[in-house]
Amino acid sequence: MKNGIYHDKLISAEAFLDLVKPGSRLFLSSEPASPLHTIDALISTNKMNLMDLELVQLMTIGSFLTPDSCDLLHFRLKTFHIGESLSREVCYGTFDYIPAGIIDIPKIFERNILDIDIAVIALSPPDEEGFMSPGIAVDVAAIAAAKATVVVAEINPNMPFTVTDSLIHIDDVDHVIESDLPLTERPARAYDDVSGRMGWNISNLIDDGSTVVMHVGSVFDALASHLKKRKNLSVLTNVVSDWVIDLIEEKVLSPDPVHGGFAVITNSCYGTRRLYDYVHRNPLIRFVPLDYHNPASNMSHLKNLVSILNVEKTDISCNTVRFHARDNILSGYPSKFHFALVSSQLGEGRVICALRSVDREGNSSIVMSLEHETERVRSTMGIVQYVVTEYGIASLFGKSIRERVMALIDIAHPSHREELLTQAKETGYVYQDQIYVTGNAVNYPENLETVKTFRNGLEVKFRPIKPTDEDMLRRQFYTFSDSSRYMRYFTAMRVMPHKNMQKYVNIDYDKTLSIVGLINEGGRERIIAEGRYAWYEYDKTYEMGFAVNEEFQGMGIASFLLNYLIKIAAERGIKKLSASVLPENKAMLRVFDRADPAPRKRGADGVVELNFDLP
Predict the structure, then answer these.
(1) DSSP per residue over 214-272, as a string?
(2) Short-list 124, 208, 191, 134, CA closest to 167
(3) Which of 34, 449, 464, 607 has an alpha carbon 20 to 30 Å from 130's alpha carbon atom?
(4) What is residue 53's predicted lDDT score, i.e. its pLDDT?
(5) Which phi-psi region, left, alpha or beta, contains residue 490 (left: φ > 0; alpha: ψ -120 to 50)?
(6) pLDDT-derived band at 231, boundaries 50, 70, 90
């Protein structure tokens, strides 16, 4: 680049102010890539030609443009979000809030719905060919520059040169203002234990090879820390933060041909100086304009897109949610819901709603209804497949309202579960005789959850049974043939009604322990096996029982369950396990014969009794 071109266009911020006419509409590039030196000059002057200005900014997160400064200097801010420095009340006063989806915002500028007199855009220093990068906030910068009557580049050496197709050439700007102000940063903070447990639960819903929609916030910081063992992930989002560094360095994120060989596709980033240095000319991170996220053009080919809605509150079936007060157009609910809607329509996509079980005052974040809430309440349009709190995961996909209600009660804070169940009975959401023992549920042994791969690549998740497994276990019961039921229950049992099954699934995890095996079929969980032991006072023993769906027998699942129960029992100090098997059940007898330790066997009353002495 010839230095003469650059210097011929160089002016001071004060000289720029003289070029502005009363009533002008100025576009300012988004935070955290705002033209801070120009904004500082605007709010620090009392020039009469700056009266009645309109400032248009996609996202404002800093403290430069405040209600006081707007009112004092007689200009208005038009913004597309309500963020940290704004509130809805402010937007109805000094600021103008423009409701718009992220896909619609570029159209507003392209069609001159908001015609721009002057665009002031923070850019990196030009390269040798004269190209400058919008750096850490691409969004609509290039579109605004193309449509504006006058384009001003605020060149800042602190702005990284990011990989993007939205470069702006020095020939396409009218004036250059130099700045060396530091970019707006998001301080690095350690996430708390609640966010950590939420992140862990979310991570268990993300498979290798997925494209994950991650944003800014403690839940996403926590999620990233629990994704370290995943492989071949990629990220598609509006904004990344410091978590992206470790995910790339740990090779969790990999270049994906689906994303043009990039590991990360984003519009912006918001974090520490370390992050801004990391994205500088990073060939794995592509910064794209907002219209890239058009489902019809760039997202329809994705098959396993995982989207996460982190919200403040949800109703008991997750049909409506209340989003956080500080959510904004890029990292808040509008953006997250856009991706969630796409996820729900594509292949093996998953939509996860995440929230803390209680608010700061200790009130339940899961409530019967949000109908009396007036602010920040939105419909989920029924697309949420999973709800996550620090207490677990509720699977909603394909479930009835009753099943959804029970699933959400099971992940609510323990101190609120009984009250929620009472309210659910009063509203008719659940059976009047519904059993839910909070004292048992809080003893759920999460540490016993594990995953095992069997022949033909069948992956089975094993975990302790939950009260919400009632319907799945009933379905499993009715898949058994009459002979299989007879082998398991020693009687020609034909039916398993709700009143019986709910007693079967509500266990204390101490004297009775049940481990179920689940597979995922098209986003739906299905129980295919169960093994349990239960204390029988009369015989002074823990007796075991097993059931494996007939189509999955002979694959080693029963052997795994038997050895797993023996291991658990031994670790818990149990000295003896027993089982009774009909002589004609030769397949199960072979399973027991291969166990370690080997059982002692004897025949009695037409059954084979097996006893296992544990160390």
Answers:
(1) --SSHHHHHHHHT-TT--SBEEE-SEE-THHHHHHHTT-B--BGGGTTBSEEESEE-S-
(2) 134
(3) 34
(4) 84
(5) left
(6) very high
Average pLDDT of the residues in 46-59: 80
* Confidence grade of residue 205 (pLDDT, cut at 50, 70, 90): very high
Residues of the chain with CATH 3.40.630.30: 446-613
Strands of 450-453's sheet in order across: 450-453, 459-464, 512-521, 524-536, 541-548, 576-581, 607-613, 600-604
Q: Which two tokens stand for residue 498?
A: 């709700």
Domain with CATH 3.40.1080.20 in the chain: 193-434
Q: What is the CATH number of domain 446-613?
A: 3.40.630.30
Mention every residue, 6+ apart, whose C-beta is less than 8 A from residue 213. Answer: 235, 236, 237, 305, 306, 307, 308, 336, 339, 340, 343
Give the chain's radius of gyration (CA, Å): 30
Burial label, 481 (beta-carbon count in 10 A; 0-12, 13-18, 19+): exposed
Helix (H) or strand (E) holding 472: helix 470-479
| Contact (CB, 8 A) for 285 and 264 | yes
Cα–Cα distance, 377 to 312 (Å, whole number) = 10
Residue 174 or 474, more confident: 174
Rounded mean pLDDT, 115-140: 95
d(CA 310, CA 340): 11
Strands 450-453 vs 459-464: parallel, antiparallel or unpaired: antiparallel
Percent of the chain with pLDDT over 70: 90
Per DSSP, what are the bridge partners of residue 530? 516, 547
Helices (H), ranges, 76-182: 88-91, 104-110, 141-147
User: Six-digit token pair at 306?
Assistant: 């995982």
Whether 484 has a pLDDT exceeding 90, the answer reads: no
Tens of pLDDT, residue by residue over 273-317, are: 999 999 999 999 999 998 888 776 677 778 789 999 999 999 999
pTM (2 d.p.)? 0.85
Over 50: is that where the pLDDT of 519 sits? yes
Fold designation for 3-178: Glutaconate Coenzyme A-transferase (3.40.1080)
Task: Specify the CATH superfamily of domain 193-434.
Answer: Acetyl-CoA hydrolase/transferase C-terminal domain (3.40.1080.20)
C-alpha count within 13 angstroms, C-beta hemisphere, residue 5: 13
Beta pairing partners, 351: 307
Note whether 615 and 576 are within 8 A (CB).
no
d(CA 145, CA 158): 21
Q: Tens digit of pLDDT for each residue in 62-109?
A: 555 555 554 545 677 777 764 433 444 444 455 677 777 778 888 999
Which of left, alpha, beta for 593 (phi over 0: left; psi -120 to 50: alpha)? alpha
pLDDT at residue 463 in the model: 96
Question: Which residues, 6 or more positions from 476, have their beta carbon under 8 angstroms from its beta carbon?
Answer: 526, 527, 528, 530, 547, 549
Instruction: Transcribe 9-50 into DSSP letters.
Output: TB--HHHHHHHPPTT-EEEEPPTTS--HHHHHHHHT---GGG
Closest CA to 345 of 380, 388, 299, 292: 299
Q: Where in the chain is the domain with CATH 3.40.1080.10?
A: 3-178
Distances (CA, A) of 189 to 83, 268, 271, 577: 19, 20, 11, 49
- The count of other CB atoms within 10 Å of the CB of residue 576 is 14
pLDDT at 384 over 90: yes
Which pLDDT belongs to residue 75?
73
Average pLDDT over residues 593-611: 88
